[in-house]
């Protein structure tokens, strides 16, 4: 999800300015409808929706004009694939609280990937996390909430901070257990806050300690989502397009 989609119209589809085009994505359990913006008479632009599973969906390009029925202009298939970022997010979400798995992720730290790779990883994994269907009882600290904060252990927050993943850290802060993880020491006696300070991650340290800290720049800051029951509406301010998602 959240990639830019360009639609090229054929000559016969290039019509008057009062015609509005939509893309309708129909999956097995969820349907999305996106508005589009016209780049020029022959091209439209919109944002791909974040889907609930990896599958091939039907996409219909629909044209709407006041006082006229909605027309299906063209139909195509669109594939939502499971990539490395999705796998990583799913692995991390499943391993929240699993000490063996969280200690295993620390080998990534030894390779110290370049800043550009870290930024790419941060954006993709945080986006994948947003599109995961996390269980209602999911917690950053794992399933065992009986553990005392005084027991040293590795947390997902330690992982995100150690690699300098700003957007993933922000996402985890908004989840149950996110704030509580900030005061937990690992086996070396480090909290996520002290790790950020030790590594010189100034922006990350501000994010963890300042009350009014804002979300790091990413696609999500360019959009606003409102949920209502089985429906959600997202407005992408960047392209000024809207996305309606409904559970079938």
TrEMBL record:
InterPro entries: Ankyrin_rpt-contain_sf (IPR036770), Rho_GEF (IPR051632). GO terms for cellular component: actin cytoskeleton; membrane. GO terms for molecular function: MAP-kinase scaffold activity. SUPFAM superfamilies: Ankyrin repeat. This is AKP13 protein. Coiled coil: none annotated. One of its GO terms (biological process) is adrenergic receptor signaling pathway.
């Amino acid at each position: 999800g959240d990639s830019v989609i360009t639609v090229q119209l054929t000559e016969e589809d290039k019509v008057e300015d009062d015609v509005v085009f939509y893309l309708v994505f129909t999956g097995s359990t969820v349907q999305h409808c996106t508005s589009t913006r016209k780049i020029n008479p022959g091209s439209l632009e919109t944002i791909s929706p974040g889907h609930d599973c990896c599958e091939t969906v039907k996409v219909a390009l629909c044209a709407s004009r006041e006082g006229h029925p909605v027309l299906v202009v063209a139909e195509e298939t669109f594939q939502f694939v499971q990539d490395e970022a999705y796998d990583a997010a799913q692995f991390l979400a499943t391993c929240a609280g699993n000490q063996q798995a969280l200690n295993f992720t620390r080998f990534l730290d030894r390779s110290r990937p370049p800043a550009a790779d870290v930024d790419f990883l941060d954006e993709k994994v945080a986006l994948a996390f947003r599109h995961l269907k996390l269980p209602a009882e999911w917690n950053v600290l794992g399933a065992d909430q009986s553990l005392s904060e005084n027991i040293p252990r590795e947390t997902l927050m330690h992982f995100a901070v150690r690699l300098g993943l700003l957007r993933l850290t922000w996402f985890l802060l908004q989840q149950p257990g996110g704030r509580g993880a900030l005061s937990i020491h690992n086996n070396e006696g480090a909290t996520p806050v002290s790790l950020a300070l030790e590594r010189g991650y100034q922006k990350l340290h501000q994010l963890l300690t300042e009350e009014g800290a804002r979300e790091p720049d990413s696609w999500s800051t360019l959009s606003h989502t409102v949920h209502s029951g089985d429906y959600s509406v997202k407005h992408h301010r960047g392209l000024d397009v809207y996305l309606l998602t409904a559970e079938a």
